[in-house]
Amino acid sequence: MIEVKDLVKRYGDHLAVDHLSFTVEDGQIYGFLGPNGAGKSTTMNIMTGYLAATEGEVLVNGHSILDEPEEARREIGYLPEIPPVYPDMTVMEYLRFCAELKKIPKGERENQITQVIALTHLEDMAGRLIRNLSKGYRQRVGLAQAILGFPPILILDEPTVGLDPKQIIEIRDLIRQLAKDHTVILSSHILSEVREVCDRVMIIHKGHLVACDTPENLEEQLAGAGSLELVAKGTPGVVTAVLDTVSGIQSRRMEDRGDGTTAVSLSCDGDIRETLFYAFASARCPLLELRHQAASLEDVFLELTEGDGEEAAQDSLTAAPEEPETTGEENEEEKEAQGNESDL
Hints:
The chain has 15 helices and 14 strands. The protein is α/β, with parallel strands linked by helices.
């Protein structure tokens, strides 16, 4: 379990995290969402001990990240957005190096390395230089080092960024497999991915937690019981006449489909589906569809984080410094090689 209590992080006059509090329960996959500049990466770096908080406390399975940093870090496996790999090492050399850094007992190292290689399906890559691996396999190597030591909590910052669709599916499947034995906190801008993989979603905006629930509950709360969509066989005039006989309709939006049917979106005072059904039946106007108006996780995200355009411009202040985007393989490797020791 992770407990974040009244967390504050300031960069000069800029408040990146503003008295943030939440609890991560064991055995679930949490999606950690927010617009650029919301404070996600800052929060994750504080949770993993790579940044110090200005105020507040983080407890990892009862260990304070400030007062007991080694004990707290031992409970966490961390994959930053840019995997902390050394391109001139082979996969096996790198994992042995990571095992030594994590102070895994010598007698257990080879066995653990073999296990994480099998778990991340890196058997065929163990002897290859990391510089010669695809980005998808580098992500797997980064995951392997996060899993070493088998910590109960995994924190993954944008684990599928920059991957092709096949690689994304592979990493998603791996995350689901890891969730059987680990609590996973997953940061991503791909909301469909979060919707598919995560058990619960936390949305952060301007350093505040604005929502924490299952994706289904968040979508249902936004849509509401009084939001309906229907399709009736009839002209807009005929459909309007029927709707005028029904009480409880607060607003309506109609669309003439041009094929003799009319689509209507309604905002209602409560659930009036039964009343609508009988009204259209009495008017002998066939009701072809009637359902709750669906809200997507994207709708929820936009509803809760509107008006953050200014904050997006300050993203560089709210997260650990990021390397500039490059297009060449050589530049990418040089970027990945920098700062590896602090990431590990």
